[in-house]
Amino acid sequence: MVVMNSRGSQNRLLLVAIMVSLLLFGAMSMAQASGTPLHDAAPGTIINFSGKQWIVLEHMANGETYIILKDSDGFRPFDPDNTDVFDPNDSDNIAYYLNNTFYGGLSQKEFVSNHSWTRVAYDGGDAIDDGNITCKVGLLSYREYQSYSSYYDGDVLPSGYSNPWWTRTRSQTDEYTLNGVWIVLHSGRLFKGVAEDTTVVVHPTLFLQSGLVLDENNDVSLAPPPGGGDDTMLRDQEPGTIINFSGREWIILEHMANGETYLILKESDGERAFDPDNTKLFDPNDSNNIAYYLNNTFYGGLSQKEFVSNHSWDRISYLFSDDYDYGNITCKVGLLSVNEYRRYLTAGIFPGVYSFPWWLRTPGSPEYEGAWFVNNNGNLARRDSIRDDVGVRPTIYLKAGLALDPDNNIIDGNTSTPPAAPIGLTAVATSPTTVNLNWNANTEQDLAGYKVYRNGVVIASVGKVTSWTDITASPGTTYTYELVAYNATGQDSGRSNPATVSTPPLTSPTALKAVWKGDYIEVSWEAGDTLLGNQAALWRQMDNGSWIAIKTLKPMEKESFVLNDRNVGVGVNCRYEIQECSVENFFGWTVVEESGWATGDRPLAAPGGLRILSSSDNAVITWNPVTGASSYVVHTSVDGQTWQTQAVSATSASVPRPSQVRVKAEGTYSHWSGALTVR
Q: What is the model's pLDDT at position 322?
């Protein structure tokens, strides 16, 4: 044994102990500060948010996390007026309570994302759509509950509860239930309730924004910015704050719901005519226009241009009462509109007095030329576009996830790297309509899941799994599958190795047929020698959705029937099955016959995003592609009475000026877009 009795030796030991303690404490502090990404919490994990316990249901492809309150928020009728539609605009409705009183009581409400909640009624085969509603807080739907509940198909939620609780899905009125809303019973089974019932409890659901973390107690918090805590997130800065971006000072106007931040240049970029040709529209396709300068010369000079988002800028005239919409234009750099200026002036972001006048993007009405601008005294005025003594204050939207360093310079708040491309993908056809995929697991710490590509198109986003089954394949078809891994911040990997497979054809003609007949599908069944059991039903699947029983077969219908299924969505394909079960095992359904995907002239959805790309003697219009469409029909009318027809295979066409234009996907029953006026 060595005895240390010198003071120097003791000091050296003490110094080593202190250094080790500091290193350990620093590592622990960093781990606690950074936390575990919420996106890594497995579905079913219980987390703490706003002082309440919640259950993680699912992590979405956009990085958001869907959660449900673990313990109920108490007893409450769905609607005392017996209204059965989830409606946050009805002050008596459960949705109003959730999005006002309940939401207002959340201490971390800034982490809750807006969401578009479906409101599709369910009653066997009935699927009447009441339209989506956008709000912060919702309830589970009938089909969501089935997918998460261990009573049905899932493993996230339990199968037994202390009290029945509401879903947001209504049932259709029938002879048994008036104004019904589906509830979850004590046993976990779904059952029709009545909206005015006061003995049902509430389990709110909501979507948490991406980029959140869990501390060691599973409390939700915002992920810290890079740089050891010296940096702050851009979205945490108050409107009116001056920041530095691309070497220039900008003023924060507003933080948007999608995480982007709206900025305006603090000082003028110099004096410039809106358009020397006296054109009043903000148009980046016109080389003489101020918008062309902003989106080429000015944008090209930004040293951090990769942080600037594309934006759709409105071009609505302003004349106090009779405004006119010239259509949106998509580009990187814009100007304020009249309405935006008035809103931000009222909010105190602008001083109201300036050393120079400056342009807005708002045009005059059809009867008046010129564009609007802000005068030195802060008042609004309209001026000919050729005036070159008006200043320019560009506006931009910065993408989400950016941070500020200690000097208020914009930096990238995302320091993660994209995951590696998945490897080892294999595809095996297990039936004419199903393909099993398997692959090797990625090892990244911040891995969030995988996107499944089929023939170059994303068909699903799955979690951190290593297998998945495509149940939407068609018989006798060859498919090529690929995978892309993505992390908690939404970064994608490269594509995996391709896996090609061919599904076998149906071995014999099916006795169950499904044929599109315009806006409905004709489903026919001929049993022939097939003898169905005690219970038989017709089931339907929409695209990649769940199989749903839509019709219980009566004794005569077990031999044959024809059903016109009108509860199908435009652009959505469907297939059907006859399934049977015994009285003793009502939940033990087995497939007897499948129709395959409905054939015939399927109606496709109306093209969206119809817009003008450029104008001369003829204008070039474009639109968003429609899923399932290979060509389009374009109607133009120059006299407002008769339509001229042209067929195109692309998503653009040349049309005369002036004219009215509408577009639809090829097909007798496909839906037309709204009319676009080309001037």
A: 58
| Strand 599-601, strand 512-517: pairing | parallel
Highest mean pLDDT among 31-45, 167-181, 323-337 belongs to 323-337
Helix (H), strand (E), coil (C) string for 257-317:
CCCCEEEEECCCCCECCCCCCCCCCCCCCCCCCHHHHHHHHHHHCCCCHHHECCEEECCEC
Q: What is the pLDDT of residue 568?
A: 80
Best CA proximity match to 437, nearest among 445, 446, 428, 450:
428
H or E element, residue 242: strand 242-245
Domain 512-600 annotated CATH 1.10.287.110: no
Q: What is d(CA 245, CA 181) in angstroms, rounded to the nearest whole number?
A: 52
Question: 101-132: b or e for each residue (b if 16 or more CB lie within 10 Å)?
Answer: ebbeebebeebbbebebbbbbbbbbebeeeee
- Domain ranges within the chain, ordered by starting residue: 46-208, 232-412, 426-502, 512-600, 611-678
Whether pLDDT at 177 is above 50: no
Per-residue pLDDT averaged across 134-153, rounded?
A: 88
Detail the DSSP E strand segments found in 60-217.
Answer: 65-69, 115-117, 133-135, 137-138, 165-170, 180-184, 190-194, 205-208, 212-214
Residue 412, pLDDT > 80, answer no
Asked if residue 394 lies in contact with residue 350, where contact means CB atoms within 8 angstroms, the answer is no
> With the C-alpha atoms ordered 639, 640, 643, 644, is the resulting torsion angle positive or negative?
positive
Q: What local confidence, expressed as pLDDT, does residue 47 receive?
A: 94
> What pLDDT digit, counting tens, does each position of 371-396 carry?
899 999 999 988 888 888 999 999 99
426-502 and 512-600: identical CATH topology? yes
Q: Is 297 exposed, middle or buried (0-12, 13-18, 19+ CB in 10 A)?
A: exposed
Contact yes or no for 342/331 (Cβ under 8 A): no
What does the pLDDT average to over 432-448? Answer: 87
- Encoding tokens for residue 236? 């945490």
Task: Let me know: does 205 contact 167? Beta carbons within 8 Å.
Answer: no
| 3-state secondary structure at position 483 | strand
Bridge partners, residue 359, by sequence: 373
Query: Which pLDDT score is estimated for 519?
Result: 77
Q: Evaluate whether the domain defined by 611-678 bears CATH number 2.60.40.10.
A: yes
Cα-trace Rg, the chain: 30
pLDDT tier, 585 (very low <50, low <70, confident <90, very high otherwise)? very low
Q: Where are the beta strands (DSSP E) in 527-589?
A: 535-542, 548-552, 560-565, 574-581
Instruction: Please name the CATH architecture into which domain 426-502 falls.
Output: Sandwich (2.60)
